[in-house]
Design goal:
Layout (H helix, E strand, L loop, with lengths): L2 H10 L13 H7 L2 H4 L3 H17 L5 H20 L11 H13 L1 H4 L7 H36 L5 E6 L2 E7 H26 L1 E2 L15 H7 L4 E2 L3 H6 L2 H28 L6 E2 L18 H24 L13 H25 L1 E2 L1 H8 L6 H10 L4 H18 L8 H7 L7 H4 L2 H6 L9 H14 L5
Parallel strand pairs: 3-4
Antiparallel strand pairs: 1-2, 5-6
Helix pairs in contact: 4-5, 4-8, 4-10, 5-6, 8-9, 8-12, 8-14, 8-21, 9-12, 9-21, 12-13, 12-14, 13-14, 16-17
Length: 471
Amino acid sequence: MDNKSNEKVIQAMKLWAGRFSKEVDEKVNDFNSSISFDCRMYRHDIQGSIAHATMLGEAGIIDKTDAESIVKGLEGILADIESGALTFDPTAEDIHMFVEAQLTSRIGDAGKRLHTARSRNDQVALDIRLYLRDEAKEIRVLARDLALTLCDIASQHTETVMPGYTHLQRAQPITFAHHLMAYVQMLLRDIQRLDQCAERINVMPLGSGALASTTYPIDRQRVCDLLQFSSVTDNSLDGVSDRDFCIELAGDIAMLMMHLSRLSEEIILWCSWEFKFIELDDAYATGSSIMPQKKNPDITELVRGKTGRVIGDVVTLLTMMKGLPLAYNKDMQEDKEAVFDAVDTVKLCLSTMIPMLRTMRVLKDNMRAVAAKGFINATDCADYLVKKGLPFRDAYKITGHLVAVCIERGTTLEELELDAYRKACPSFDEDVYQAISLDTCVAERKVYSGPAKESVLKQIEKAKEVLGCEQ
């Protein structure tokens, strides 16, 4: 069927056309249309309609023969869309009307019976839940892949000493593995949130009607079972007007993007000549149009920038919903572009960052060299005196004095002579040098969650267990 013929069918099938004596202004029609973005839900719309038609036939609400014709017709439409034989008509009001128009043009009056006992309001609510249920699973898979990638890298660097930072100032010695596992913890929380959100998405609204359900004896549980939802909505007003799950998923995605942005910021710093902790593979960096020496971490910069737009998507959804009276309002059509953008953006960022991290080169010697500077073992020097019997605050003051001496002489605590130590406090002895070595500083932090090798290996093991990965 060509687009012109299909347009006539669609115009004739506007569900509300009987009330009006004029055709809608062309600009209004364009303004009202959502086919350009909700067409991506075609599979879910057809899936929902097949379940609805099946239930209608089983319940005797429509003739079983008509129900079978509807199901067969919908399956044909799905096959044609996926093969490319059928393209979306831009003049259609939305994906729901496009599919129904196609169905009626193919099977005749039986197609007009599909919309019995449902409204476009609960149809839309169903489609977006089906769609986001699938998308949440895909995002979870990618987030899990990223977490496992970081675990794999961490397992190779449990003895790669680097400085840990606070206020972006060198603070205490840790390992690269320990640092990466902090991001794994963030991702584990992201995955947990996605799982919890998926439970709230997986509630079936069809049967809510426009807002007050229906007088037909429909079997909502049958549709619920056919579509593999966990339960049905309990209130028809809420069933058609609830978009909490859209906001929640977008919020979870924004949190995930925020974590990706933090990691991106560190990668950007680590790639710089000032740090030079890592080097990205050439396939995941770009150059400059004028400066031939440049190797720019554009991927991570884009992730950092795109985080802002996803946060904007959450604000869009919250602002859209904040003043709406019950039940459905056309404002809610704006839910899709915002949540679709959040979904598309996080999937793109995750799928790009995973191979970028897998192929990056870790410059261990540079990390170690920087860790040797900045007096990041000063706390361990103070702890040495505490273990000799001094109060911590006294030990803290003595160590601060020694740091000042080192700065004045242009040396480090490891290189400072023992006489200088003993002049500051007679409790110092030869064993201070072992106590403040970077390897000792890391290895002795055996408290669970700390940077010692055995502790980090436990973190990796536990994370992989949570992620369902065979050890």
